Known about the structure:
This protein is α+β, with helices and mostly antiparallel strands. It is 46% helix and 20% strand. A hairpin with a 6-residue loop joins strand 6 (185-188) and strand 7.
Amino acid sequence: MAGVQSIERAFALLRTLSISPGGVTELADRIQLPKSTVARLLSALEQEGAVEQTESGGEYRIGDGLGALAADSSAEPDLNELAMPFLISLAEETGESSGLDTLRDGWVHFIDHVNDDRDVQVRDWTGEAGPAHSLPSGIVLLAHADQATIERYLDSDLDNVTPTTIVDPDQLRERMAQAISAGYSWGFEEFAEGINSVAAPVFAETGVVAALRVHGPTFRFPNPNFTHDIGLIVADAARRLTGQLLAGAPPS
Protein backbone atom coordinates (compact mmCIF):
# COMPACT_ATOMS: atom_id res chain seq x y z
CA MET A 1 0.00 0.00 0.00
CA ALA A 2 2.74 2.44 -1.02
CA GLY A 3 0.17 4.94 -2.28
CA VAL A 4 -1.62 5.09 1.08
CA GLN A 5 1.70 5.51 2.88
CA SER A 6 2.62 8.42 0.61
CA ILE A 7 -0.70 10.12 1.36
CA GLU A 8 -0.22 9.63 5.10
CA ARG A 9 3.28 11.10 4.88
CA ALA A 10 2.06 14.05 2.79
CA PHE A 11 -0.62 14.86 5.35
CA ALA A 12 1.90 14.59 8.19
CA LEU A 13 4.05 17.09 6.32
CA LEU A 14 1.13 19.46 5.71
CA ARG A 15 0.07 19.27 9.35
CA THR A 16 3.50 20.29 10.60
CA LEU A 17 3.70 23.08 8.00
CA SER A 18 0.32 24.37 9.21
CA ILE A 19 1.99 25.08 12.57
CA SER A 20 5.11 26.78 11.21
CA PRO A 21 7.25 26.87 8.03
CA GLY A 22 10.50 24.94 7.81
CA GLY A 23 13.35 23.78 5.62
CA VAL A 24 13.80 20.23 4.35
CA THR A 25 16.13 19.18 7.18
CA GLU A 26 13.94 20.68 9.91
CA LEU A 27 10.76 19.16 8.46
CA ALA A 28 12.41 15.75 8.16
CA ASP A 29 13.31 15.93 11.85
CA ARG A 30 9.81 17.00 12.81
CA ILE A 31 8.02 14.10 11.12
CA GLN A 32 10.86 11.59 11.46
CA LEU A 33 11.33 10.80 7.77
CA PRO A 34 14.45 10.74 5.58
CA LYS A 35 15.40 14.06 4.00
CA SER A 36 15.17 12.50 0.52
CA THR A 37 11.57 11.43 1.18
CA VAL A 38 10.58 14.86 2.51
CA ALA A 39 12.26 16.60 -0.43
CA ARG A 40 10.35 14.38 -2.88
CA LEU A 41 7.02 15.03 -1.11
CA LEU A 42 7.64 18.77 -1.03
CA SER A 43 8.41 18.80 -4.74
CA ALA A 44 5.15 17.01 -5.55
CA LEU A 45 3.12 19.23 -3.21
CA GLU A 46 4.74 22.35 -4.63
CA GLN A 47 3.69 21.39 -8.16
CA GLU A 48 0.07 21.23 -6.95
CA GLY A 49 0.28 24.59 -5.14
CA ALA A 50 -0.19 22.94 -1.74
CA VAL A 51 3.18 24.24 -0.48
CA GLU A 52 5.53 27.01 -1.58
CA GLN A 53 9.00 28.26 -0.76
CA THR A 54 9.41 31.70 0.77
CA GLU A 55 12.45 32.15 -1.50
CA SER A 56 14.75 30.00 -3.61
CA GLY A 57 16.35 27.48 -1.30
CA GLY A 58 14.39 28.88 1.66
CA GLU A 59 11.76 27.53 4.01
CA TYR A 60 8.53 25.89 2.86
CA ARG A 61 5.08 27.01 3.94
CA ILE A 62 1.46 26.16 3.10
CA GLY A 63 0.74 27.35 -0.45
CA ASP A 64 -2.02 29.57 -1.78
CA GLY A 65 -3.65 26.64 -3.56
CA LEU A 66 -4.33 24.81 -0.32
CA GLY A 67 -5.33 28.03 1.39
CA ALA A 68 -7.96 28.66 -1.28
CA LEU A 69 -9.35 25.16 -0.82
CA ALA A 70 -9.51 25.67 2.94
CA ALA A 71 -11.36 28.92 2.48
CA ASP A 72 -13.83 27.40 0.03
CA SER A 73 -14.56 24.40 2.24
CA SER A 74 -14.71 26.08 5.64
CA ALA A 75 -16.44 29.38 5.03
CA GLU A 76 -20.08 30.21 4.59
CA PRO A 77 -21.08 31.17 1.01
CA ASP A 78 -19.76 34.66 0.20
CA LEU A 79 -18.18 35.00 3.64
CA ASN A 80 -14.79 36.06 2.28
CA GLU A 81 -16.35 38.54 -0.13
CA LEU A 82 -18.62 40.00 2.53
CA ALA A 83 -15.79 40.22 5.06
CA MET A 84 -13.25 41.97 2.84
CA PRO A 85 -14.61 45.55 3.26
CA PHE A 86 -14.55 45.05 7.03
CA LEU A 87 -10.98 43.74 6.94
CA ILE A 88 -9.89 46.76 4.93
CA SER A 89 -11.71 49.11 7.30
CA LEU A 90 -10.18 47.46 10.37
CA ALA A 91 -6.67 47.72 8.92
CA GLU A 92 -7.23 51.40 8.16
CA GLU A 93 -8.85 52.25 11.50
CA THR A 94 -6.38 50.38 13.73
CA GLY A 95 -3.25 50.81 11.62
CA GLU A 96 -2.54 47.07 11.92
CA SER A 97 -3.14 43.94 9.84
CA SER A 98 -6.56 42.29 9.91
CA GLY A 99 -7.77 38.79 9.16
CA LEU A 100 -10.68 36.38 8.89
CA ASP A 101 -10.52 33.03 10.70
CA THR A 102 -12.63 29.89 11.06
CA LEU A 103 -12.55 26.98 13.49
CA ARG A 104 -12.42 23.34 12.45
CA ASP A 105 -11.52 20.29 14.56
CA GLY A 106 -9.94 22.42 17.26
CA TRP A 107 -7.77 24.40 14.85
CA VAL A 108 -8.14 28.04 13.83
CA HIS A 109 -7.72 28.35 10.06
CA PHE A 110 -6.53 31.69 8.72
CA ILE A 111 -8.57 32.22 5.56
CA ASP A 112 -8.00 35.87 4.63
CA HIS A 113 -5.70 38.79 5.45
CA VAL A 114 -5.28 42.52 4.81
CA ASN A 115 -1.92 44.19 5.49
CA ASP A 116 -1.49 47.52 7.20
CA ASP A 117 0.66 50.15 5.46
CA ARG A 118 3.40 50.42 8.08
CA ASP A 119 7.07 49.75 7.47
CA VAL A 120 7.12 46.93 10.04
CA GLN A 121 4.39 44.39 9.29
CA VAL A 122 3.44 41.02 10.73
CA ARG A 123 3.50 37.98 8.48
CA ASP A 124 0.47 36.70 6.58
CA TRP A 125 -0.64 33.29 7.93
CA THR A 126 -3.35 32.76 5.30
CA GLY A 127 -3.71 29.06 4.52
CA GLU A 128 -2.15 28.00 7.81
CA ALA A 129 -3.69 27.03 11.15
CA GLY A 130 -3.05 27.18 14.89
CA PRO A 131 -4.44 25.53 18.04
CA ALA A 132 -7.64 27.21 19.18
CA HIS A 133 -6.51 27.84 22.78
CA SER A 134 -3.47 29.82 21.59
CA LEU A 135 -5.45 32.38 19.58
CA PRO A 136 -8.16 34.91 20.49
CA SER A 137 -10.07 33.80 17.38
CA GLY A 138 -10.10 30.29 18.82
CA ILE A 139 -11.25 31.57 22.21
CA VAL A 140 -14.22 33.53 20.80
CA LEU A 141 -15.21 30.71 18.44
CA LEU A 142 -14.98 28.02 21.13
CA ALA A 143 -16.88 30.24 23.55
CA HIS A 144 -19.94 30.04 21.30
CA ALA A 145 -19.64 26.32 20.54
CA ASP A 146 -21.81 23.72 22.30
CA GLN A 147 -20.66 22.57 25.72
CA ALA A 148 -19.70 19.09 24.55
CA THR A 149 -17.34 20.57 21.93
CA ILE A 150 -15.78 22.88 24.50
CA GLU A 151 -15.19 20.14 27.06
CA ARG A 152 -13.86 17.72 24.44
CA TYR A 153 -11.33 20.33 23.39
CA LEU A 154 -10.32 21.23 26.94
CA ASP A 155 -9.86 17.54 27.76
CA SER A 156 -7.36 17.12 24.90
CA ASP A 157 -3.61 17.67 25.11
CA LEU A 158 -3.13 21.45 24.99
CA ASP A 159 0.33 22.43 23.81
CA ASN A 160 2.36 25.40 24.98
CA VAL A 161 2.83 27.07 21.60
CA THR A 162 4.83 29.87 23.26
CA PRO A 163 5.97 30.40 26.87
CA THR A 164 2.85 32.51 27.52
CA THR A 165 0.25 30.15 26.03
CA ILE A 166 -2.52 29.42 28.55
CA VAL A 167 -3.27 25.69 28.77
CA ASP A 168 -5.12 25.44 32.10
CA PRO A 169 -8.75 24.41 31.33
CA ASP A 170 -10.23 26.53 34.12
CA GLN A 171 -8.38 29.64 32.95
CA LEU A 172 -9.53 28.97 29.39
CA ARG A 173 -13.14 28.58 30.52
CA GLU A 174 -12.82 31.94 32.28
CA ARG A 175 -11.43 33.54 29.14
CA MET A 176 -14.35 32.19 27.10
CA ALA A 177 -16.80 33.63 29.62
CA GLN A 178 -15.02 36.99 29.43
CA ALA A 179 -15.12 36.84 25.61
CA ILE A 180 -18.88 36.35 25.64
CA SER A 181 -19.34 39.20 28.13
CA ALA A 182 -17.02 41.67 26.37
CA GLY A 183 -17.76 40.61 22.79
CA TYR A 184 -14.06 40.18 22.00
CA SER A 185 -10.88 38.53 23.31
CA TRP A 186 -7.22 39.52 23.39
CA GLY A 187 -4.19 37.26 23.01
CA PHE A 188 -0.74 38.37 24.09
CA GLU A 189 2.13 36.49 22.41
CA GLU A 190 0.34 33.16 22.94
CA PHE A 191 0.52 31.95 19.34
CA ALA A 192 3.66 33.75 18.16
CA GLU A 193 6.21 35.58 20.28
CA GLY A 194 6.25 39.30 19.52
CA ILE A 195 2.65 39.31 18.19
CA ASN A 196 -0.54 40.41 19.99
CA SER A 197 -4.04 40.05 18.55
CA VAL A 198 -7.70 40.65 19.26
CA ALA A 199 -10.73 38.90 17.75
CA ALA A 200 -14.53 38.97 17.79
CA PRO A 201 -17.08 36.36 16.61
CA VAL A 202 -19.17 36.48 13.45
CA PHE A 203 -22.53 34.69 13.26
CA ALA A 204 -24.83 33.38 10.54
CA GLU A 205 -28.12 31.51 10.74
CA THR A 206 -26.21 28.32 11.55
CA GLY A 207 -24.47 29.92 14.53
CA VAL A 208 -20.90 31.19 14.94
CA VAL A 209 -19.03 30.83 11.62
CA ALA A 210 -15.89 32.95 11.81
CA ALA A 211 -13.90 35.56 13.69
CA LEU A 212 -12.57 38.94 12.63
CA ARG A 213 -9.03 39.55 13.87
CA VAL A 214 -6.54 42.40 14.16
CA HIS A 215 -2.92 41.67 15.05
CA GLY A 216 0.33 43.56 15.28
CA PRO A 217 3.83 43.63 16.81
CA THR A 218 3.95 43.66 20.60
CA PHE A 219 6.16 46.76 20.71
CA ARG A 220 3.35 48.92 19.33
CA PHE A 221 0.11 46.92 19.56
CA PRO A 222 -1.98 47.54 21.46
CA ASN A 223 -1.53 50.98 22.94
CA PRO A 224 -2.35 50.08 26.58
CA ASN A 225 -4.60 53.13 26.85
CA PHE A 226 -6.84 51.90 24.03
CA THR A 227 -7.00 48.12 24.53
CA HIS A 228 -10.73 48.17 25.30
CA ASP A 229 -11.46 50.67 22.51
CA ILE A 230 -9.69 48.48 19.93
CA GLY A 231 -11.63 45.46 21.15
CA LEU A 232 -14.89 47.36 20.70
CA ILE A 233 -13.88 48.39 17.16
CA VAL A 234 -13.32 44.76 16.19
CA ALA A 235 -16.50 43.63 17.94
CA ASP A 236 -18.53 46.31 16.16
CA ALA A 237 -17.15 45.23 12.78
CA ALA A 238 -18.02 41.62 13.60
CA ARG A 239 -21.58 42.63 14.56
CA ARG A 240 -22.04 44.54 11.32
CA LEU A 241 -20.71 41.62 9.27
CA THR A 242 -23.07 39.33 11.20
CA GLY A 243 -25.96 41.62 10.25
CA GLN A 244 -25.09 41.31 6.57
CA LEU A 245 -24.78 37.54 6.76
CA LEU A 246 -28.14 37.24 8.50
CA ALA A 247 -29.79 39.62 6.05
CA GLY A 248 -28.09 38.11 3.00
CA ALA A 249 -27.24 41.63 1.87
CA PRO A 250 -24.20 42.69 -0.18
CA PRO A 251 -21.48 44.71 1.58
CA SER A 252 -22.17 48.42 1.88
